[in-house]
Amino acid sequence: MAAIEVQGLTKAYGDTLANDHLDFSIERGEIFGYLGPNGAGKSTTIRQLMGFQAPTEGTARIFGHDVRNDRELRQAKARIGFLPGEPAFTPSVTGAELLDYQAALKGDERRDELLDIFTPPLDRQIREYSTGNKQMLGIVQAFMHDPDLLIMDEPTSGLDPLKQEAFHAFLREERDRGKTIFFSSHILGEVRRVCDRVGIIREGRLVTVEAVDDLLERGGKQVRVHTAEPVTEADFDVDGIVGFEAEGRQAQFTFTGDYNDLFAALADHRLVDIEIDEPPIEEVFMHFYGGEE
Ligand SMILES: Nc1ncnc2c1ncn2[C@@H]1O[C@H](COP(=O)(O)OP(=O)(O)OP(=O)(O)O)[C@@H](O)[C@H]1O
């Protein structure tokens, strides 16, 4: 049985179809990234999975429990750790008080271990917390009762790069312990670093669900070349070049071809610098999905 099974999930807000007949499933023990630009419909899916909003049509099952049914939803939620997009903690309580309260409800067998990695200032009132500190408190409360499934809405927003890295390493360890992790993001690099599979949503529709390795292989790389002499597109007569732009002695493009061909073409030029990076998420969208946005 899948950890999450989404079937025809549809949510309409007036004329806006925030989720349009979504179908996907998430296997136990995988890290699944739910990727899409702002307003694509990621939070809408998460709110329905958590039972905060009822689907207009379709449903989702979590460990077999139908989220439209209150009793089944409660059974599902007993196994879920949840981190909302913008955690709304009571501002007048301290971090420690919040965790104590959550512990009384669900348990906290992993609290100390989590607080070694994520370090919110527990003695201070939450009203004094920075965005990153709130996020860390949210991460601790989501994981501290050792749930089987984590559902998180943009969990790294507000975390500094070192904490982001610590969080990614932690997620991989949790996956290796058999936990299932579903999180939304609009950052391709993050999904690339940590996820096994990705679902890409755009304007309410799922455009692909696939292994991250396969997506990146098809998505190509962003190449920037700085040469000693001016270059034009004719200097790069190589298969797999998309979106070529050149200005003076600099050229940039997305490359999905064979690097040997590219370097053979570059051999005719004196190179000053070359950068090869992951493409920004917009490039992946435009390359594969039309890019009419
Ligand atoms: N309560 C609501 N009432 C009306 N429209 C809504 C409501 N919530 C979301 N929407 C609309 O539904 C669409 C999807 O929004 P959603 O918040 O799910 O996107 P998202 O992918 O989570 O975006 P972000 O990355 O910006 O959080 C957007 O067009 C949004 O304006």
TrEMBL record:
Domain named ABC transporter: residues: 4-228
InterPro entries named in the record: AAA+_ATPase, ABC_transporter-like_ATP-bd, ABC_transporter_ATP-binding, P-loop_NTPase
Transmembrane regions: none
Domain of life the protein comes from: Archaea
Keyword Cell inner membrane in annotation: no
A molecular-function term among this protein's GO annotations: ATP hydrolysis activity
Keywords: ATP-binding, Nucleotide-binding, Transport
Family recorded in the similarity comment: Belongs to the ABC transporter superfamily.
Protein name: ABC transporter ATP-binding protein
Organism: Haloplanus aerogenes
